[in-house]
């Protein structure tokens, strides 16, 4: 089970990227999230490391999150220079799926 699960989680982002062009961007943001957000927010959004907020309890909608991720706030870094607007949109869409 462990090895299968590990293999699956490695595969998923790649599957998601190929599906992204055709479908709503839900999964492509997962890879971006793991790379850019997980170290503070944790895999499930609840970790709250480095003063980060629990994303599962956030009331911010996609518009507010896009602004915050692009421009940063307090200890939250701005990603407007490291991510394209499309990547920001994808990672925000993924963050909205965390419950
Ligand atoms: C260096 C740690 C760090 C990283 C990396 C980080 N964040 Fe944050 N995040 C924070 C902190 C700290 C706050 C609280 C900011 C404040 O209100 O002062 C926050 C707040 C947020 C909020 C607002 C939550 C609320 O209060 O409603 C969202 C949404 C969010 N982050 C999404 C992301 C996303 C998406 C990424 C990756 C692109 C990311 N964060 C990467 C530290 C981080």
UniProtKB/TrEMBL annotation:
Keywords: Electron transport, Heme, Iron, Metal-binding, Signal, Transport. It comes from the Bacteria. Residues 1-22 form the signal peptide. InterPro entries: Cyt_c-like_dom, Cyt_c-like_dom_sf, Cyt_C_IC, Cytochrome_c-type_DH. Pfam families: Cytochrome_CBB3 (PF13442). One of its GO terms (molecular function) is iron ion binding. Residues 24-99 form the Cytochrome c domain. This is Cytochrome c6. It comes from Hymenobacter arizonensis (Siccationidurans arizonensis). The lineage of its organism: Bacteria, Pseudomonadati, Bacteroidota, Cytophagia, Cytophagales.
């Amino acid at each position: 089970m462990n090895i299968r699960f590990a293999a699956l989680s490695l595969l998923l982002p790649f599957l998601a990227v190929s599906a992204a062009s055709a479908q709503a961007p839900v999964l492509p943001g997962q890879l971006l999230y793991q790379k850019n957000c997980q170290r503070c927010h944790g895999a499930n959004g609840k970790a709250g490391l480095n003063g980060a907020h629990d994303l599962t309890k956030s009331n911010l909608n996609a518009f507010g999150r896009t602004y915050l991720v692009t421009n940063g706030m307090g200890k939250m870094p701005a990603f407007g220079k490291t991510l394209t607007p499309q990547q920001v949109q994808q990672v925000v869409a993924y963050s909205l799926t965390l419950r």
